[in-house]
Amino acid sequence: MTTRERCMNILHYKDTDRMPAVHFGYWSELLEEWAEQGHISHELALSARGDGSVGQRELDRIIGWDCNWCNTVSADSGLYPKFERKVLEVLPDGSHRVVTGNGVIERIKLGIVSIPSEDDYLLKDRDAFETVFKPRMQYSEDRVNVDRIVKKFNEKYEQDVPVGLHLGSVMGEIRDITTVMGMSYLMYDEDEELFADIIDTYADMQYKCAEAMLATGLKFDFAHYWEDICFKNGPLLSPVLFDELCAKHYKKRNDLCHKYGIDIISLDCDGVTGSLISTWIENGVNVLFPIEIGTWGDQFEPARKKYGEKILGVGGMDKTAFRKDKAAVDSEIERMKRLSSMGGFIPCPDHRIMPGSKFELVQYYAEEIKNIRI
Amino acid sequence: MINYTEKQSQSGKCNLLNNAHICYNVFSCEDIYGVKKIFSHLKSNVLFEISFVVSGSGIHRVLDRDIPCKAGDVCIIPPNIPHRYFLTDTKDNLTVRQILFDIYDWFDEEIAAHTSPRFCYGVFRDNSTIAYATLNDHMRDKVNSLYDSIESEILEQKNEWRELIRGYLANMLVNISRYVNSAIKNISFTSSNEWYMVSEAIRVINEEYSDCDLTLDYIAKKLYISQSHLSRIFKNLTGISFSDHMRDTRIKCVCKLLEKSDMNIEDAAKECGFRDIPSFYKNFTEKMNMTPNKYRQSMNLSENKSEEYKKLLKGEKIMGILNDISINVQQGKAKIVKALVQQALDEGVKPADILDEGLLAGMGIIGEKFKNNEVYVPEVLVAARAMNTGTQILKPHLVANGVTATGKVCIGTVQGDLHDIGKNLVKMMMEGKGIEVIDLGTDVAPETFVQAAIDNNCQIICCSALLTTTMPVMEDVVKAVEAAGIRDKVKIMIGGAPVNEEFCKKIGADCYTEDAASAADAAVELCKELA
């Protein structure tokens, strides 16, 4: 069986010869560490960063992975054109204030690897939306470069791994444009109609991108969203409001996928996701990913208990075990066996494998996980 | 059968179709407002109801609340809520169009279910009992036209008429729902059913406190909600318990009687609703810091009497402003908070009272709700912004009055970590507890934490980390504090996504909390310990 067949069979509750070894990429600092330790070359450390890249596939082969779940093809479905990224100011401590492609002003420090601190944002009012942002949220044919998309799809498809259609996001990318602070002020205090307009405008554009991608005739194995709208204590906004603002857009995009025969729709959301799952599953999303149990304690079992077999999972393996020892990895493998026995679940590290992870433990996991039989 | 008026509709139409699936009724209401306020004069039915004031004006009595109504008012009322329209003048005219329908008959069960956020129940945001709004001209025409269409389909019953009605009904509900939701900020009565319930409870207490049988249970039944629910929302929204509020209201009544009349103390207590006299004495003395007898004596000093009475009245007004500040902080209304704080200062309210009983009280309630997952990050952020707006106005007055903070904390994300949303939330929550917070920003070196704590006399160093790769720096902060010889003077709190209690103990820090609100509570306690 191919990796594609294994993954798709499991997610359709069909038989498979063995569990595929699926991962979700690496921190670039880890790759540098492994290069320093002599496990891989420095060239490979650089080329293996991108999900599904040639370098990453080579590293997958060395380690023993079958595929990265985030193996998707997407249109240019963000702000178009993006803002020109430029340094606005160099502060006395050496940090830079930069305006990003999304119109957010971030503070970054050279040499520090971290999610940057957000200082300010440009999308604050109706005027900024109508004049600066809305034109960048419109659909145009050049967002979908068919030649590039077909080429990329074929490259991935020939590897016999599942190839996903990236559907963008409904709220996550808006959060990236407005920042958490700006999103909160817009939603709850300043202009909730404007916030709904932003969501609707952006979603309409992404729907049209998906429509154009599917019209190419490419047969995607699954569709995939990125959201990241939850944190340690749950969602970043009220689940009721999330449902009001987003449900219709998930439904519309997912109905389109169903029309084209795509019945596996996964969604990447970090944090504790439990209270948003109903909106997702009632509107067509059916795969939870990456189910961050290690950092946040997110769980798959409660969702399965509540929604039954219509909910599927990819993820759920506590990646911090790779920093510990063989016993910790074995314990995770045992837990993965239990989860896999429910069906409709593919084990995968619960986020990108982090610095400090031991090369030999990752190799060991990738081989052992294949021994799971369902 | 639905017939609210003695005089039937102007068109005489009243249709009941398919086992009361839907009933449509147009009538001209000519009842005169002024009947005794009892529910038996109201009507309720077992179906959902959409009523729409087409023309005229009058009073719409829902439960025991009178709402002035006028053309364009639309109201969706769930089953079994008694209500009725009245006129206030014989010369007035009021035309109301109504549709009654059984939601389960007209829509599938999933859509009609209470857990569904869609359709009908979408209208009843926050479990509101009724949805009430005044439509703009465009919406008014739209709703009126939908009524016309439904009426026409009912009367003619052509092919597939039920399907069309279902569509019109859905159209009407969704449009009203959208309108109500978009206008919700401007509709104080319906913006939240909880506010309505609590304000009703307060009104009933104010009117009936002299009845010693007046209980939480009685009012809860009157409002058609459970006793525990009323108790909970009352405390949440007012900051004090139902029983404390009723006790305070009765004590105010006793004070007035002691001041104005010669009634003996026990009779005054009974007159104001106290049944248990020993308990009355205890409550009165606790509340007023003097016995009832002392109170009467102090009031009877003729030259002081009017002044004290004025003070009492002023006290009520002040409590009203402080309560408004608290409520508007909770709702994140920065501009209103700013104006109210200024108003309170102009009225001569002590800055410390404005801070404690207005701004911090409101933020405290939001903090509790955040801990209980009743509100989310956005509500905390807008509430904190509103509180800070008020604090800016208040700050010079607090300094002038020598008001000091509950404690002093320096906070930052640890070296190598730039992500500061969590840190900012904790800062806001701590400020919401009256703590002075020195924000060291992001990527803060251990020695910077130590120096800031020494320079500013901080009781607490608070470290945040998002990343598993940066959390070990927290241990360096602990070691730096020890090396500087201030470990016994400074507590170290840690928090952030990858951090937990076990890690806190392992590195020798003092406190870890799950969330920002708990961090603020813990900081207050630690400051007390070190005071």
Describe what this molecule looks like in 3D.
The complex is a heterodimer of chains A (374) and B (531). By secondary structure, chain A is an alpha/beta fold. Helix content of chain A is 43%, strand content 15%. Chain A is built from 14 helices and 15 strands. Chain A is globular and about 60 Å long. Chain B is built from 21 helices and 13 strands. Chain B has helices spanning 103-106, 109-112, 119-123, 137-156, 161-183, 193-208, 216-222, 227-238, 242-260, 265-271, 277-288, 292-300, 302-330, 334-346, 351-371, 377-400, 421-431, 446-456, 473-483, 501-507, 516-530; strands spanning 14-17, 22-29, 48-62, 65-70, 73-77, 83-86, 94-101, 131-134, 407-413, 435-439, 460-464, 491-495, 511-512. In chain B, helix 18 (446-456) packs across helix 19 (473-483). The longest helix of chain B has 29 residues, at 302-330. The interface between A and B is large, with 40 and 37 residues.
Write the layout of secondary structure elements.
The complex is a heterodimer of chains A (374) and B (531).
Chain A (H helix, E strand, L loop, with lengths): L2 H9 L10 E2 L4 H9 L5 H6 L6 H10 L3 E2 L3 E2 L12 E5 L5 E4 L4 E5 L8 E5 L4 H8 L12 H12 L6 E5 L3 H19 L1 H24 L6 E5 L3 E2 L2 E2 L3 H21 L5 E4 L8 H6 L4 E3 L3 H4 L4 H7 L4 E6 L8 H15 L4 E5 L9 H10 L6
Parallel strand pairs in A: 1-2, 3-8, 8-9, 9-12, 12-13, 13-14, 14-15
Antiparallel strand pairs in A: 4-5, 5-6, 6-7, 10-11
Helix pairs in contact in A: 7-8, 8-9, 13-14
Chain B lengths: L13 E4 L4 E8 L18 E15 L2 E6 L2 E5 L5 E4 L7 E8 L1 H4 L2 H4 L6 H5 L7 E4 L2 H20 L4 H23 L9 H16 L7 H7 L4 H12 L3 H19 L4 H7 L5 H12 L3 H9 L1 H29 L3 H13 L4 H21 L5 H24 L6 E7 L7 H11 L3 E5 L6 H11 L3 E5 L8 H11 L7 E5 L5 H7 L3 E2 L3 H15 L1
Parallel strand pairs in B: 9-10, 9-11, 11-12, 12-13
Antiparallel strand pairs in B: 1-2, 2-7, 3-4, 3-5, 3-6, 3-7, 5-8
